[in-house]
Amino acid sequence: MEFLECLFCQKKYPLDLFDSFCPDCREPMLYPSPPKKRRFYPGKNYPLERFLDFLPLSKLDASLNLGEGNTPLVKLNRLIERTSLPNVFAKNETFNPTYSFKDRGSAVAFQKAVAMGLERIGTVSTGNMASSTAAYGAKAGLKTFVLLKEDTSLEKTLSVGIHNPELIRVKGDYGELFTKSFSIGRKYNIYFMNSVDPFRVEGYKATGFEIFFQLNHRAPQFIFVPLSSGGHLMGLMRAFLDLKKEGFIQQVPIFVGVQAQGCAPLAKAFASGKSKFERIKKAETIAHAISNPDPAGGNISLRMIKENNGMILDVSDEEIIEAQKMLAELEGIFCQPASATTLAGLLKFSKNVKFKTRVNIVLVITGSGLKALKSIESSRINVHQASLSDLENTIGSILK
Ligand SMILES: Cc1ncc(COP(=O)(O)O)c(C=O)c1O
Ligand SMILES: [Zn+2]
User: Fold this and answer.
1) 75: which DSSP letter?
2) From the CB of 195, is ligand 1 less than 6 Å away?
3) Which ligand 1 atom sits nearest the alpha carbon of residue 371?
4) In-domain check, residue 382
5) Tally of structural domains, the chain
6) What is the pLDDT along the chain (400 residues), one digit of tens a residue?
7) Which residue lies with its CA nearest to atom 15 of ligand 1?
8) Which residues, including other chains, have CB under 8 Å from residue 273's CB and lie 6 or more apart?
9) Could you tell me if residue 318 is inside a domain?
10) What share of residues in the chain are helix, strand, coil (percent, to 5)?
């Protein structure tokens, strides 16, 4: 029998895909590491195969693979020159099949669902997780339910709906919907793989392992990650905790979770030394993908960050827009505002810290800017006007 464990009360409970929260603490439970010695299989090309010993899967069904992972780790040379920061890299997760890191989690959660013989899956999301779940649901041929907020934009609805899941717009409180999805899931046998699902979290470990291999078997000193529900940060951190446990590294990187000032319940709790966060009443930020006033994995994230000397920062919308622009203009990387918080956070952090020159810093670029075009005001883009007859002169004057 498989178990999940609660970091808060240290108890283990039998795996229940329809409710993976601790019956006592109501915090999300995680998949425990096995006691056996684990190794990598570097010759394999499919990331899940390479990292199989570290994942909660005993075998893989290759037919579910959409090509997730193997994303580039790119050195940000022009940004480094401009800012005199040390070695900064972008782990560019926009290269995943549905253009965000969510595919890493979906890949593992779908493997588990299919291995356990489930035929119906679902998620509660308005953005990246919805399209990822819908795409993997299509590939696996499962009946897929996506519960959307009532006011989800047409642009987002289309990119999910194109995979033809059962799309339901739900009126009412979004936080309550998250909780309710689990009881509905149990009734109708629908596995709701939401943001802190234990198998999603294990899937995010693959990104951490890739960073380790891409840096020639070394951990970076710092990793900056956008922080919302906390699922992604937990998974990345667990990858490096596993690497340390197995003797591959001596030290876990310093994780810096970054929130948007308009919705920063965890940054607030961290700054005031609290171990539990308070729900935010009104969230308002350009970084919609991380605008979660009541993050399900918030308390665990706070705990893991504290236990591993990490920190949580917040950045303003202006800082986010500036960072998005810098990544696009200096480095050719077009990311969502949510992902640009990583660079905004690093720029803010570096005002108070003197980095050693050999330090490696990784920014995890979680999702593509093409999915949040509405956040870009057209006034930000510089367009020259010319008619065919004066085009030559216009280009000539630009070059002057
Ligand atoms: C682009 C992007 N970045 C970061 C996050 C935050 O991830 P998590 O909710 O696991 O903290 C999300 C979550 O939806 C996202 O869509
Ligand atoms: Zn508990």
Assistant:
1) E
2) yes
3) 1
4) no
5) 1
6) 899 999 999 999 999 999 999 999 999 999 999 888 999 999 998 999 999 999 999 999 999 999 999 999 999 999 999 998 999 999 999 999 999 999 999 999 999 999 999 999 999 987 899 999 999 999 999 999 999 988 787 888 899 999 999 999 999 887 789 899 999 999 999 999 999 999 999 999 999 999 999 999 999 999 999 999 999 999 999 999 999 999 999 999 999 999 999 999 999 999 999 999 999 999 999 999 999 999 999 999 999 999 999 999 999 999 999 999 999 999 999 999 999 999 999 999 999 888 988 999 999 999 999 988 888 887 788 899 999 999 999 999 999 9
7) 289
8) none
9) yes
10) 45, 15, 40
Task: Return the ligand 1 atom nearest residue 229 CA.
Answer: 9
Ramachandran region of residue 106, left (φ > 0), alpha (ψ -120 to 50) or beta?
alpha
251 inside domain: yes
Ligand 1 pocket member 230 (CB < 6 A): yes
The CATH code of the domain that includes 310 is 3.40.50.1100
CA atoms within 13 A on the CB side of 105: 30
Residue 237 structural domain = 73-99+198-377
Nearest CA to ligand 1 atom 6: 228
Alpha carbon of 9 to ligand 2 centroid (Å): 4
Among residues 234, 295, 235, which one has the least CA distance to residue 260?
Answer: 295
Smallest CA separation from ligand 1 atom 4, residue: 226
Cα separations (Å) of 127 from 159, 179, 206? 9, 18, 22
**Does ligand 1 come within 6 angstroms of the Cβ of 207?**
no
Note residues around ion ligand 2 (Cβ under 5 angstroms).
6, 8-9, 22, 24-25
Judged by its nearest atom, the ligand closest to the C-alpha of residue 13 is: 2
Structure tokens at 245: 């446990």
> How far, in Å, from the CA of 290 to the mean position of ligand 1?
5
Residue 30 pairs in a beta bridge with 5
The two three-digit tokens of residue 45, written as one number: 């090309």
Alpha-carbon distance 378 to 46, whole Å? Answer: 40
Q: Is residue 385 part of a domain?
A: no
Stated pTM of the model? 0.97
Contacts of 271 (CB under 8 A, 6+ apart): 312
Which ligand sits nearest to residue 368's alpha carbon? 1
CA 325 to chain CA centroid, nearest Å: 20
Secondary structure of residue 171 in the 3-state scheme: coil
